[in-house]
Every structure is written in C-alpha cells, then in structure tokens.
C-alpha cells in the first residue's frame, strides 16, 4: 500500500507540474517538474525516497527508449551510422578516459579506477533531458538528430566502462584485452539480442494480423510489454538491455513504416497509448530527479559537509571538460559532420545529462570488499550537480542563440497542399477496379470533410461514445414503451460502431446462425403462393420501421449534442453530427453485402495510402517542408480515426 501511495503521489505531482508548465511557458517543463519533485520530498512518506536503479532502468528508461527508437527516422539513422557510432562510442570513451585521467591527476582523493567510475557515470547523455531543453527552440535539424541518436546509444558505452571500472576497483586488476572483449560483447551483443527478439516479436505480430487476430486489445498490450521482456532477457544473458530495447524499437519503426495502414484501429490506438505512456514516464523522470536531489544534499551535509565546495568545483570542472571534448571532437570533424563553430557549440551544449547518470550513481555498491565504498556520497552529489548544470546552461544559452520554434508553412500552403493531396488520392483511386458506388462513397465523403478533422480527438471520441449511448438508450426506452418493436434494437446495434467489435468466434457463430435461419426462412416463404406480396409487405414494414428508428435516433443525437455544446467544442460537435448523418445514410440508403463492405474498407485504406504516398513524394522532391509533411501526415491519421469511428471502416480495416 505504501508503494502504491508513493507512485500515486508522484503521478499526481507530474500532472500538476504539466498543468503549471502549460501556464508558465517561459520556464522549461523539466525545471518545473524537478521543483515539484523537491516539494514532494517534504511529505513524510517520500522524505527518504530511495531509487532502485535496476527497477528504474526497467520500468522507466526501457519503455522511454523503446518509444523514442520506434519513432526514429530509420532512413536518417542509416545515413548517419558512422557519425552516430563516432559520438555514441568513440566520443563517449574519449570523454570518460580524459576526465578520469584529469581527475586522478588533479585530485589525490580519486584513484584512477575511481575517477574512471565517476567519469563513466556523468558521460552518458539523456534522451528525455535533451528534448526538455530543446522543445521550444529551433535547433538545426542535423544537430538535433545527432543529439537524439547519440543519447539512444551512448548509455551502453557509459554502463560498460562503469562496470569495468567497478571490477578493477574490486580486484585491483585490469586487462585491456578483456576490457575490449567485454565492451564488444555487451555492446554488440545487446544490439544482436534486440534484433533477434524484435524479429521474433514482429513475426508474431504479423502472424496475428494475417490470421485476423490483430485486435488492438491484443497487440497494444504486446507492444507495451515488449521493452520489459527484451530488457530482462538481454540482461539475463549479460548484454546491454538498453541497446537491446533500442534495437527492437528500430525494427518496430521499420514495420510501422511499411505497414502503416495494416490496421487503422490498431495504429490509432497504439499511437495514442504510447503517447500517453511516454508523457507520463517523462514526467516521472524529472519528478523523481527532484525528489532525490534533497536527499543527496542532506546525505552530503551529514557525512562530509566540508567537501561540498570542492565537490561543486569538481562538478563544474567535469562539465567544462565535457563541453571542451565534445566541441573539439565535432569541430575537428571526427564525427563526419563538417560543422562550423556555431553547430559545434550547439552540439556541445546539447549534451544534457539526466536520470541515467543518477541511476548509475545510485547503483554504486555500499561496500567494496570489507570496507565502505570510497566517496560514494560525494560521487552521487557530484553526479547530481553535473545533471543540474547540464540542464541549466543550455536552458539559459539556447534562448539567446536559437529562435523559438515557429510554423514552417502558412495556412494557405497547408490548404493548397491538402487539396492537391486529396485530388491525387482520388485520381489514383479512379485507376483501381472498384465498384462505381464504392468510389462515389469514398470520394464524396473525403471531399465533404475535406479529408480531415483538425479538432480535439479526445473530445471527439468522448462525444461519439456519448452519442452512441444516447442512441442506444433512446431505442431501448422506445421498445420498453411499446413505441417500437424489439427488432429496432437489432437495427441500432448493427448501426452503432461500439457493437460491431465482438469476439471473432462469437461473430462467426452469429453469422452461421443467421445464414442457417435465413435459408430455412426463405425456403419456407418461397413455397407459399403469395410470396411476392409477402416480400413487398415486409419491405414496406421495414422501411416504415427504419423511418421510426431514424426519427428517434435523430432526436436523441440532437438533444445530446445540444446538451454537450460549448464554445470550445463547436468543431467536434459538427463532426459528430456529420458522422451520425453519414453513418445513417450508408446504413439506410443501401443494402451492402459483406463483399461490398470489404471493398469499401479497401478503398478507404487505399485512399489513405495514396495520401501518404503523395506526401512522401513531395517531401523527397523538396516541394514541401518537413513541418508541413508532418502536419498533413497527422491530419491523415486523424481522418482515419474519423472514418473508423463513423463506422465507414470496420475494426480491422
């Protein structure tokens, strides 16, 4: 119960910090979250909060790095393979060795293995921290990509050298050959394990999709569990769990790029779930950092308060040395970028450190042999100080040298490109062998919406769910009151999206029963002499019933939307009303066979694929900007969501 209470308090604190961050935009959100965590440490249950590094890496760092890597642009990573290896491995090793030797040379209290241990702790950059100080600034694309790729891979470099240094401290023996072999095994072994496990998981996902078992309720939890399973298995065989998770995420990024529209519902749900999970864990990172900082300072004052000024000086010196090494490394073109002074300084300042550094510091053993680990408290204090300095310096410097992020396109450009994209998709769709009615449905619907919904998706989903419930309740009430026959409930259930996604076997059984019953009924009716008159009468009764159902549903929908209408959700209300009309017209105006429904699903999917294809072609030919392509890509995804919720795509389209 105590652990649950602590987690809940940290989550609530993160949410409050996010709200404050939206109100106070001139302060980086990371600093607000750190401050909130420091205030949280004043509450007794959390006053002595302790980090468990292994658990922290597994529960927070692994899923965050997995999400970052599965959203990585693989084409850019392939182009920068050499430079990424240079900054994530070569630069990391040079930095660790250089700082270690300087600390050992200048400060007698640090033996060389202990100095290497400290430098290995403070060297890895943090992907979450990098984003926190650059989120509102327009950082050059090549610099930002290099920082992101570096932070994905250099954690392993620091961890491996950290473990080697601890081994030397414990045994007083170091073998260069064994150290190199161990580094290669842990680093490349982690990548190999991640690729193998990632390939197996992708094979499983593809087979589930192939056999129509790729429901979001199955594959999204599988996606969430992936980084935890990969990390644990990699660590079990003694390789880098962090790199294994990153490699698996890269494979998922490759699959998503190829199978963007394998399942509309799956892609939308998976993206939303990971966005929420990532935002929550990002808040966790800095709240926990703020929660730990007071404990670090208190421990320092209790054990060696006289060394605090010296430790602060060492932290400043370490940060200055890291800046210098990073600057010289890229300025001398060792990373293959051929950057000038400005880009080199931006890359140097962008090497922000975060909770990975603190996690490594807290993983220092309490004892070494039969004695207490030397200067453990001081090392943790220095590491915490380096984190704060690395966050503070770019937070102050970047606003002075970098412009704020702005839209890379005008609204006219957005409208014109969007119209061209829709026309391209519809022209390509005309070349396909779809039934003319199917093509008309897709064309009219996309053009009537201009292809997109740009409002608040969460509000839209809430209103759609509310409309569905209001519709079902209205029909139930009418049936109970004797206004409508029980058959009206069946019509409503077939109409509403939320009743369409049953269990696979339940659905097959229901279809089998319906076919069997229908065949018997038709055979019985056809044997009667007044068959044609009976058919005409049934049709007339059905149309009359449809009119009655439509009238009740329309009144229920309008009443619900009027009650929910506010000044802020007008666009969402209009879209829900449009969805109701479109949904009803497709149900009532045609009798669509299963084959036609399949064609309709395929046609929508094809149209969206053509839109993505158009954006990719325009981007490759430098006819539109990266920002414009991203905006339109997100709008296409929103349009997919609208079509799905309108019932125009079934659950696995």
TrEMBL record:
Where do the TM regions start and end?
20-43, 49-66, 86-103, 151-171, 183-204, 216-234, 273-293, 305-325, 345-367, 379-402
**Could you tell me which residue ranges the Cation/H+ exchanger transmembrane domain spans?**
14-398
InterPro entries in the cross-refs:
Cation/H_exchanger_CPA1 (IPR018422), Cation/H_exchanger_TM (IPR006153)
Where is it chiefly localized? membrane
Q: Does the keyword Transmembrane helix apply?
A: yes
- What are the protein's UniProt keywords? Cell membrane, Ion transport, Membrane, Sodium, Sodium transport, Transmembrane, Transmembrane helix, Transport
Protein name, UniProt field: Sodium, potassium, lithium and rubidium/H(+) antiporter
Give the organism, scientific name.
Periweissella ghanensis
């Amino acid at each position: 119960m105590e652990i649950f209470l602590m987690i809940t308090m940290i989550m609530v604190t993160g949410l409050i910090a996010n709200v404050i961050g939206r109100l106070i935009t001139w302060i980086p959100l990371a600093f607000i979250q750190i401050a909130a965590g420091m205030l949280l440490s004043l509450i007794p249950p959390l006053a002595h909060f302790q980090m468990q590094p292994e658990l922290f890496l597994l529960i927070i760092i692994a899923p965050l790095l997995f999400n970052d890597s599965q959203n990585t642009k693989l084409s850019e990573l392939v182009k920068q393979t050499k430079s990424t290896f240079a900054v994530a491995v070569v630069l990391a090793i040079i930095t660790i060795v250089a700082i270690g030797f300087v600390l050992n040379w200048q400060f007698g209290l640090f033996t060389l293995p202990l100095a290497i241990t400290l430098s290995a702790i403070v060297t890895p950059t943090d992907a979450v921290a990098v984003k926190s100080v650059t989120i509102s600034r327009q950082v050059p694309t090549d610099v930002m990509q290099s920082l992101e790729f570096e932070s994905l891979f250099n954690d392993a470099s620091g961890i491996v050298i950290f473990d080697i240094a601890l081994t030397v401290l414990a045994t007083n023996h170091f073998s260069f050959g064994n150290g190199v072999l161990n580094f290669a095994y842990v680093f490349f072994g982690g990548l190999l394990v991640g690729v193998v496990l990632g390939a197996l998981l992708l094979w499983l996902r593809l087979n589930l999709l192939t056999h129509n078992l790729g429901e979001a309720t199955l594959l999204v939890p599988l996606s969430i569990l992936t980084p935890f399973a990969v990390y644990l298995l990699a660590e079990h065989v003694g390789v880098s769990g962090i790199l294994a998770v990153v490699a698996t995420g890269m494979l998922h990024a490759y699959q998503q790029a190829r199978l963007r529209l394998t399942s509309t519902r799956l892609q939308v749900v998976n993206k939303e779930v990971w966005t929420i999970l990532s935002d929550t864990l990002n808040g966790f990172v800095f709240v926990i950092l703020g929660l730990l900082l007071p404990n670090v300072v208190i421990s320092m004052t209790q054990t060696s308060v006289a060394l605090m000024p010296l430790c602060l000086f060492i932290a400043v010196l370490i940060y200055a040395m890291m800046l210098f090494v990073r600057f010289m490394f890229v300025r001398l073109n060792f990373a293959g970028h051929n950057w000038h002074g400005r880009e080199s300084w931006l890359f140097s300042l962008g090497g922000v450190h975060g909770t990975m550094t603190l996690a490594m510091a807290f993983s220092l053993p309490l004892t070494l042999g039969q004695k207490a680990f030397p200067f453990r408290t001081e090392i943790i204090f220095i590491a915490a100080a380096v984190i704060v300095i690395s966050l503070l310096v770019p937070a102050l410097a970047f606003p002075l040298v970098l412009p704020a992020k702005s839209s890379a396109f005008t609204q006219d450009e957005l409208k014109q490109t969007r119209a061209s994209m829709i026309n391209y998709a519809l022209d390509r769709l005309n070349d396909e062998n779809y039934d003319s009615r199917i093509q008309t449905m897709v064309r009219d619907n996309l053009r009537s919406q201009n292809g997109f919904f740009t409002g608040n998706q969460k509000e839209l989903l809430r209103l759609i769910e509310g409309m569905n419930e209001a519709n079902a309740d209205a029909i139930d009430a009418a049936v109970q009151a004797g206004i409508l026959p029980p058959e009206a409930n069946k019509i409503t259930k077939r109409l509403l999206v939320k009743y369409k996604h049953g269990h696979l076997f339940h659905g097959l059984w229901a279809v089998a029963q319906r076919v069997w019953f229908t065949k018997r009924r038709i055979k019985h009716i056809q044997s009667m002499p007044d068959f044609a008159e009976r058919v005409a009468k049934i049709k007339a009764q059905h149309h009359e019933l449809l009119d009655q159902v439509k009238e009740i549903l329309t009144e229920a929908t309008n009443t619900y939307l009027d009650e929910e209408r506010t000044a802020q959700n007008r666009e969402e209300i209009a879209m829900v009303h449009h969805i109701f009309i479109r949904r009803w017209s497709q149900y009532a105006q045609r009798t669509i066979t299963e084959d036609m429904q399949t064609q309709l699903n395929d046609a929508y999917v094809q149209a969206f694929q053509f839109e993505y294809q158009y954006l990719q072609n325009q981007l490759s030919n430098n006819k539109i900007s990266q920002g414009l392509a991203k905006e339109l890509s997100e709008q296409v995804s929103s349009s997919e969501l609208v079509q799905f919720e309108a019932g125009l795509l079934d659950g696995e389209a």
